[in-house]
Design brief:
This protein is of the alpha+beta class. It has one domain: Outer membrane efflux proteins (OEP). The chain has a 4-stranded antiparallel beta sheet with strand order 1-4-6-7, with no helix packed on it. Strands 2-3 form a two-stranded antiparallel ribbon. The protein has a two-stranded antiparallel ribbon with strand order 5-8. The longest helix has 67 residues. The relative contact order is 0.13.
Length: 444
């Protein structure tokens, strides 16, 4: 008996352990999955990979696509089979009866109905819904492109802010060294108060510029974090990327414009919306046409009459004669929306032409600026080498200013390179191409 009690206790302990393990597993599954922190240092490839992650802009575009798909289901339902059960329990007292006895007059009916033909209204509604789905899919693609462009721009803003800070910090250090040397001579009475204050003013102005650059570093990092939908994670270190695509030849503007007019997602989406608006006009005009439908009914009545039918099948042809002006109003409204959509499409085509021209001209100018930036950087490097040599020979030298100019030349060269990368990315986006993260090669 005691052994049996021990075995029973062990069974209960084992069962309790299993239940605790099961509850623990359920609790862990209910907990939200921890999001992986941003890598440090952060590369452009890693940043662009987050373009497909959850984001309010993508969520809104997805929701609009889902609404368009639901609109197609709604359009199809117009000609679908409809079934319902109508149950009416009721007791009546006929007025011709002398007594107060109630009569059970309850009934139950099963009804089927289907629209057979409506002279194109359902077809037009389906066409409008399908055009809306195509437009929303293209809008989603355009949103994905915009996400990549935004992340690319914000990433480069951080790098430029860091480079600008290096320039202003170098300039401030140079001004401080000059001011500090003059301050020592001022103590010995070798320079006047005016000369000392002049250099102190230069130092303070340089300090202000350095402080502003430091603030821009924080602002640009917050903008990047928001673009990545990680507002609480400010990336400290970013890897300087290379852009091999910047060496491409600028395309012929005529061929590029023709390609963009055919493939630009936003423009093609507007064309689909225009076709949908045109189909909606046809659907509204079809309100004036007859509708042929079939109905079937099976009923059971508690009170029998000769005029009541247990089964019934009907064909109905409804021909509208006068709708109180509602048909004219809906057609006018659909036409107004169509004209508005056509105007938006024409405006978008004009804007696209201007954008393509601006980007091509920017790239042509940036190629010239790129060559000039390389010459500037080479000159500043050689000038720094000469200044360093003079400094080592204890000859009067502007080493501090030369170091500042080298840093500034690097900032200007990066500015040109980044502007070219953004221009190429925007040009690719205009023709429907997504920025590929694998094409971004980190600098070594």
């Amino acid at each position: 008996m005691a052994a049996a009690g021990v075995r029973g206790a062990r069974r209960w302990q084992y069962a309790g352990a299993c239940i605790s393990l099961l509850l623990g597993s359920i609790a862990q599954a209910a907990e939200p999955v921890a999001r992986t922190a941003l890598p440090s240092p952060l590369t452009l490839e890693q940043a662009l990979a987050l373009a497909e992650a959850a984001h309010p802009d993508l969520d809104r575009a997805q929701a609009r696509l889902q609404a368009a798909q639901a609109g197609l289901d709604q359009a199809k339902s117009t000609s679908g089979v409809r079934a319902l059960i109508d149950v009416t329990p009721q007791w009546v007292q006929p007025s011709l009866r002398s007594n107060d006895e109630l009569i059970n007059d309850s009934r139950a009916r099963f009804l089927l109905s289907k629209r057979l033909y409506d002279f194109g209204r359902t077809a037009s509604l389906g066409e409008a819904a399908r055009a809306d789905i195509a437009a929303r899919e293209l809008t989603l693609l355009d949103t994905r492109q915009a996400r990549r462009l935004d992340i690319l721009a914000r990433y480069l803003d951080v790098l430029l802010a860091d480079l600008r800070y290096a320039v202003d910090n170098e300039a401030m250090a140079h001004q401080y060294v000059n001011f500090d040397k003059l301050r020592q001579r001022h103590r010995l009475g070798q320079v006047s108060d005016v000369e000392l204050l002049e250099l102190e003013q230069r130092y303070q102005e340089a300090f202000i510029l350095r402080t502003r650059s430091q603030k821009r570093q924080a602002q640009s990092r917050l903008a990047l974090a928001i673009a990545l939908n990680r507002p609480d994670e400010l990336s400290a270190d970013l890897v300087l990327p290379r852009f091999p695509g910047n060496d491409r030849e600028v395309p012929d503007i005529k061929a590029l414009l023709e390609n963009a007019l055919q493939k630009n997602p936003a423009l093609v989406a507007l064309r689909q919306e225009t076709e949908g608006a045109r189909a909606q006009v046809s659907a509204e005009r079809a309100r004036r046409y007859p509708v042929l439908s079939a109905e079937g009914e099976a009923a059971r009545y508690e009170r029998e009459f000769i005029s009541r039918d247990d089964l019934r099948a009907t064909l109905n042809l409804r021909i509208p004669l006068w709708q109180g002006g509602e048909d004219r109003a809906t057609i006018a409204l659909a036409l107004a929306r169509l004209h508005e959509q056509e105007a938006r499409l024409r405006r978008a085509e004009l804007d696209l032409r201007q954008t393509v021209l601006d980007l091509v001209q920017d790239l042509e100018s940036l190629k010239i600026e790129r060559t000039a930036a390389k010459v500037r950087t080479s000159y500043r490097d050689l000038y720094l080498d000469r200044s360093r040599a003079l400094y080592e020979m204890e000859v009067k030298s502007d080493l501090g200013d030369a170091m500042t100019r080298v840093t500034e030349a690097q900032w200007l060269a990066a500015q040109v390179e980044f502007r070219m990368a953004l221009a190429w990315a925007r040009l690719d986006a205009l023709t429907g191409d997504l920025i590929q993260t694998s094409l971004q090669e980190p600098a070594r």
